[in-house]
Design goal:
This protein is of the alpha/beta class. The protein contains nine helices and eight strands. The strands form two sheets. The protein has a five-stranded parallel beta sheet with strand order 2-3-1-4-8, with helices on both faces. The protein has a three-stranded antiparallel beta sheet with strand order 6-5-7.
Length: about 210
């Protein structure tokens, strides 16, 4: 199965993707993670990407598409995939259709997590991620879990692009540029909208209903 998890930054895509990976044996393909890996390498390309990401802008298709294609190539073709953070514009949506078509596959499901700007602000500004196990927490909502996290507090770091100014740009850029993508999928049968403002467990319960069929 090929699934797109769609929604603005902070909608909970990462959290829900982790749940689906663990419980339904999917592979998570996050273009944000691929870009951050490139930044970590401190290559020329990585430095260029870092500047774009830190401003909250979108990285160009010329940079993102090859990273996505490479990641798809090294994946077990039989494994189900969650696309997290891709597509973000119409040309990426069309590119994904084309790539999948070439290997006789298609998008089976698009889950849209719909969330307001206010909720996003609070979520992103509190978000911290464990460098070791990739789990995410929120400083406003998960104080106990943070205190008891088995990898230790020192591994919990805030993403560089999770600051107030960037958050607003990222949300607005997302809404402006991805609106056509939403329109592209929303009248297709594969499209399902979930209220991303619900609690994590309520969202996972809805996802269970969909994936367990
Ligand atoms: P994310 O981890 O999905 O929130 O992505 C973090 C940042 O990486 C975004 O704010 C963009 O700057 C960039 N990015 C991730 N995926 C894409 C994509 N498909 N197209 C363009 N830029 C992307």
């Amino acid at each position: 199965m090929k699934l797109i998890l769609f929604g603005p930054p902070g909608a909970g895509k990462g959290t829900q993707a982790q749940y689906i990976v663990k419980n339904y044996n999917f592979f998570q393909l996050s273009t944000g993670d691929l870009l951050r890996e490139e930044v970590e390498k401190k290559s020329l390309l990585g430095n260029k990407i870092e500047k774009i990401i830190s401003k909250g802008d979108f990285v160009s298709d010329e940079i993102v598409n090859p990273l996505l294609i490479n990641a798809l190539k090294i994946q077990n073709k039989k494994k189900s995939i969650i696309f997290d953070g891709y597509p973000r514009n119409i040309s990426q949506a069309k590119n994904l259709e084309k790539i999948l078509d070439e290997i006789n596959q298609k998008i089976d499901l698009v889950i849209f997590l719909k969330v307001s700007r206010e909720t996003i602000q609070k979520r992103i500004l509190g978000r911290i991620t464990c460098q070791k196990c990739n789990m995410t927490f929120n400083e406003f909502f998960n104080q106990e879990e943070i205190k008891n996290h088995s990898c230790g507090k020192d591994n919990l770091k805030r993403r560089k692009d999770d600051n107030e100014e960037t958050v607003i740009t990222r949300y607005d850029t997302y809404m402006e540029k991805t609106k056509p993508v939403l329109d592209f999928y929303s009248d297709k049968e594969v499209f399902i909208e979930i209220d991303g403002g619900l609690k994590i467990e309520e969202i996972t319960a809805k996802i269970d209903q969909i994936l367990k069929v």
